[in-house]
Write a structure and sequence with these properties.
Length: 270
């Protein structure tokens, strides 16, 4: 399957710290791929390089066949990459529908002069943007909450609103940074089902960072593992679960042997 995202030798350095170190990664179209790793492994830095927030010192980011690592964030969004954040970044004092409309802004043709003169084109696009905002709020399960301030929404609803705003830019690739962080088990299960439905119903590709291994193993077609900025493993959930380097990265030296011993004991007890 043709990849929608590729990175070749992607490297990001902060002072003397190499946060992402020569990472090669390929994400096929219309898949759900995950990036995992211990805290400080470079996962969010990788997202920031992919979405244009950081410029890498070395390597390439290729999206849908086009090298994008020197483009601005708005240019990358327009090409079809959108994202959410580990810490929710909504416009707290704006309404839910206004937040979604901001995400849709990159698809509008009106200029600032159209807005000042309130031209027919501006009026038409504003109506269409409101309509699209309502449609997306309904899609993410927030129908009827469009006039609520974002800061007044429950935590889980804010997470969904952030996804609605990201979808408003009509992405081909959606980057989700810890979408279930801070959620209770029921909310996590609902979000997992929802993420899967995004791929299945919209045909978009999803790349996510997630610490909940039940979510990762249950939803991912492909998993890439970072440790100290380096990719140490890649494969299916089953392959990753039994990879000694991955186990050691999470459990420390001797972790693979400990995991194998526990697995044998569990099998024997069964």
């Amino acid at each position: 399957m043709q990849p929608i995202l590729e990175t070749h030798q992607l490297t990001k350095i902060f002072g003397g710290l190499t946060a992402v170190d020569s990472v090669d990664l390929t994400v096929p179209k219309e898949t759900i791929a995950s990036i995992i790793g211990p805290n400080g492994a470079g996962k969010t830095t990788f997202f920031n390089c992919t979405s244009g927030y950081y410029k890498p010192e070395k390597g390439e980011v290729i999206f849908d066949g086009k090298v994008i690592n020197r483009l601005s964030t708005d240019q990358i969004t327009h090409l079809g990459i959108s994202r959410t954040y580990q810490n929710i970044r909504l416009f707290a004092n704006m309404t839910a529908i206004e937040n979604v409309m901001i995400g849709h802004h990159c698809r509008l043709k009106s200029s600032w002069l159209d807005a000042v003169l309130h031209t027919p084109r501006f009026a038409r696009e504003e109506r269409e943007s409101i309509q699209e905002g309502r449609r997306l709020l309904k899609y993410v399960g927030l129908e009827g909450l469009g006039d609520n301030l974002a800061r007044n929404l429950p935590y889980g609803a804010q997470r969904r609103l952030e996804i609605a705003r990201a979808l408003a830019s009509e992405p081909k690739l959606l980057l989700l940074d810890e979408p279930t962080a801070g959620m209770n088990p029921q909310e996590t299960a609902e979000m997992t089902t929802f993420i899967r439905s995004l791929r299945d119903s919209l045909g978009i590709t999803i790349l996510l960072i997630e610490h909940d291994m039940n979510v990762v193993m249950g939803i991912s077609d492909q998993i890439s593992v970072l440790d100290f900025g380096t990719k140490i493993a890649e494969g299916t959930p089953k392959e990753i679960q039994s990879n000694p380097r991955v186990i050691e990265a999470y459990l420390g030296p001797g972790g693979a042997a400990l995991s194998e011993k526990f697995s044998r004991k569990k099998h024997h007890d069964a």
